[in-house]
UniProtKB/TrEMBL annotation:
<feature type="domain" description="Tectonic-1-3 N-terminal">
    <location>
        <begin position="17"/>
        <end position="123"/>
    </location>
</feature>
<dbReference type="GO" id="GO:0060271">
    <property type="term" value="P:cilium assembly"/>
</dbReference>
<dbReference type="InterPro" id="IPR057724">
    <property type="entry name" value="TCTN1-3_N"/>
</dbReference>
<dbReference type="GO" id="GO:0036038">
    <property type="term" value="C:MKS complex"/>
</dbReference>
<dbReference type="InterPro" id="IPR011677">
    <property type="entry name" value="TCTN1-3_dom"/>
</dbReference>
<comment type="similarity">
    <text>Belongs to the tectonic family.</text>
</comment>
<dbReference type="Pfam" id="PF25752">
    <property type="entry name" value="DUF1619_N"/>
</dbReference>
<keyword id="KW-0970">Cilium biogenesis/degradation</keyword>
<keyword id="KW-0325">Glycoprotein</keyword>
<feature type="domain" description="Tectonic-1-3">
    <location>
        <begin position="328"/>
        <end position="522"/>
    </location>
</feature>
<dbReference type="GO" id="GO:1904491">
    <property type="term" value="P:protein localization to ciliary transition zone"/>
</dbReference>
<keyword id="KW-0732">Signal</keyword>
<comment type="subunit">
    <text>Part of the tectonic-like complex (also named B9 complex).</text>
</comment>
<dbReference type="InterPro" id="IPR040354">
    <property type="entry name" value="TCTN1-3"/>
</dbReference>
<protein>
    <submittedName>
        <fullName>TECT1 protein</fullName>
    </submittedName>
</protein>
<dbReference type="Pfam" id="PF07773">
    <property type="entry name" value="TCTN_DUF1619"/>
</dbReference>
<feature type="domain" description="Tectonic-1-3">
    <location>
        <begin position="159"/>
        <end position="319"/>
    </location>
</feature>
């Protein structure tokens, strides 16, 4: 009734608790654990990096633009300061639109839940719930009391993110490493998706070796890993392999890796002490750890040993994918292979089918390779011999082709093209050394060019062309911070040069050279810290501009 509504106290209207902390959002933060140029919200940037910025590429960061009222983070540069510094503020942003969302109280819409697949056990229940003409997916309660919402709970992410320490039942997964000196410190946590390899020194003695926890296998596998942070689901660390190293350095792989081998004193020796541990973590694309395995290297020490050197390593592999070695993180490292791949049929569906394979010594996995020179320099004998293209290394290789009068032009041209390019020449090259297959924008398409001799033939003649050289030019640039620039490939061009086929008279032969080459070109714009680079003017001067000087 109207009188009841009039008597009821008016409930104060407050803005909803923020679901997203805009101070932690950064849309221009593209490099992992690296500072992005002119990205003022990048948490990896230091004050020294901000002093080199010229502008803020993203001046304001907001959450959902459909909300009526929300917090917004603004970023700017104080150029009058010496050196220039970043200014960040958190302000209230009001949506001027009449149609806006006041409260995001439908919690199921804040995340995607995979649908439940019907099985023989749940089919009747699903049919009863969704089998009618209409059904409701509303939550049990539409809680509009915004005061009861806890912003800290709303910001909680129940998945592992890059760099987050891997949690265990008691603390976190330890990856011992040297801190100040070369001695091992067991307080170094293993970060999610952070591949690490460390070496450190640990003090030991034969008399006390069985009481030192850090030299026992049990110390590294006795604590289960949490599948996701702050969850009750645990993943046990299994022993994948055990290698025993003798006093003279000889290593032997044990067939039985299920037996736990603890340190023990035997004839003035301490055996089964841990010299190396290698963790391998398997995770899903949702940031959940599903498997954890450890490989051990066990050794022995005598009474003369006062310390040992231990090595630790951790690597990560996404489930249902093949591990691919990286050529840098993120930028390419000089001397490592260039990563290449192919676009699958039906692209962009599915994107994850993009093949990203490293260059090996053969072309088995469809990689970017060039012709490998052989001792006899015979092109027909060199077919199938490939060598990897290494970043930063200009290379040239070739062979000699003996042409006889019995050879036909078209089959010879096809064989020479296969000889220069290989059986499967890739379509894309990874721009970074750690580009993932699912990140399609991180892959640069290879541009194919054709060059031939400029000759004029009568209209009734159709001369045949045979390829004689393949020239690959890789253009790269320095990307990221000026303090630690990363090598990034921006363009790859493959140019095939052909020559005109001339049919030889019967009994005659001739030899032609066939070459392959790779050239790396640095196209970085010259810049100095604190100064803007001069613009480049693309003009062509007259041919006699410098006359009479050369």
């Amino acid at each position: 009734p109207p009188e009841t509504r009039a008597a009821a106290p008016a409930r104060p209207r407050r803005g909803p608790a923020p679901v997203t902390d805009v101070a932690k959002l950064c849309v221009c933060d593209l490099l992992v654990a690296q500072c992005d140029v002119n990205c003022c919200c990048d948490p990896d940037c230091s004050a020294a990096d901000f002093s080199l910025f010229t502008t803020c590429s993203v001046p304001i960061v907001t959450g959902d633009s459909r909300l009526c009222s929300q917090k917004a983070a603004t970023y700017s540069l104080d150029v009058k300061a010496n050196p220039p510094k970043r200014i960040s503020k958190l302000i209230d942003h009001v949506n001027p639109s009449v149609f806006c969302i006041h409260s995001t109280n439908y919690k199921q819409a804040l995340s995607f839940s995979p649908p439940e697949m019907p099985t023989a056990q749940n089919f009747d229940r699903l049919l009863k719930q969704y089998g009618s003409a209409t059904f409701s997916v509303a939550p049990d309660s539409w809680n509009v009391n915004t005061d009861a919402q806890n912003p800290s709970d709303a910001n909680e992410t129940y998945r592992y993110e890059y760099g987050v320490p891997i949690q265990t039942v008691d603390a976190f997964l330890r990856l011992p490493s040297p801190v100040v000196s070369s001695w091992c410190s067991d307080t170094n946590p293993a970060g999610f998706l952070v591949n690490q390899a460390t070496k450190c020194t640990r003090s030991v003695s034969v008399e006390k070796c069985d009481n030192i926890q850090a030299v026992s296998m049990l110390f590294y596998i006795n604590s289960s890993i949490l599948a996701v942070p702050k969850s009750s689901q645990m993943v046990n660390i299994t022993v994948q392999s055990i290698v025993v190293q003798s006093l003279n350095g000889t290593r032997t792989l044990l067939n039985d890796s299920e037996v736990l081998r603890l340190p023990m004193i035997l004839d003035e020796l301490c055996i089964n002490i841990v010299l190396g541990v290698s963790y391998h973590i398997t995770y899903t694309d949702g940031g959940e750890i599903i498997e954890a395995a450890a490989s051990f290297v066990l050794g022995a020490i005598n009474q003369a040993a006062l310390s040992i050197e231990q090595s630790f390593e951790i690597s990560f592999t996404q489930v249902n994918t093949k591990p691919v070695p990286l050529s840098g993180n993120p930028g390419y490292v000089v001397g490592l292979p260039i990563r290449a791949g192919f676009r699958p049929r039906g692209y962009p569906f599915p994107v994850e089918c993009l093949l990203a394979a490293l260059v090996l010594n053969t072309n088995k996995y469809n990689q970017l390779t060039i012709l490998q020179s052989t001792s006899n320099q015979d092109c027909l004998a060199a077919q199938g011999a490939r060598t990897p293209i290494l970043f930063g290394y200009n290379m040239i290789s070739g062979c000699k082709l003996r042409i006889t009068a019995a050879m036909k032009c078209q089959p010879l041209a096809e064989n020479l093209l296969d000889l220069l390019k290989g059986q499967s020449f890739p379509e894309y090259v990874a721009s970074f050394g750690n580009s993932q297959a699912q990140d399609v924008l991180d892959w640069v398409p290879i541009t194919h060019l054709h060059a031939s001799e400029q000759k004029i033939y009568p209209a009734f003649q159709t001369p045949c062309q045979i390829p004689v050289s393949l020239e690959i030019e890789v253009k790269w640039t320095k990307y990221g911070s000026l303090v630690n620039p990363q090598a990034r490939i921006v363009n790859v061009t493959a140019t095939v040069t052909t020559t005109t086929w001339k049919q030889l008279p019967s009994g005659r032969e001739r030899t032609i050279p066939v070459t392959s080459s790779v050239v790396f070109t640095d196209v970085s714009s010259p810049a100095e810290p604190g100064y803007k680079a001069w613009p480049t003017i693309n003009v062509k001067l007259p041919f006699d501009f410098f006359f009479p000087f050369v």
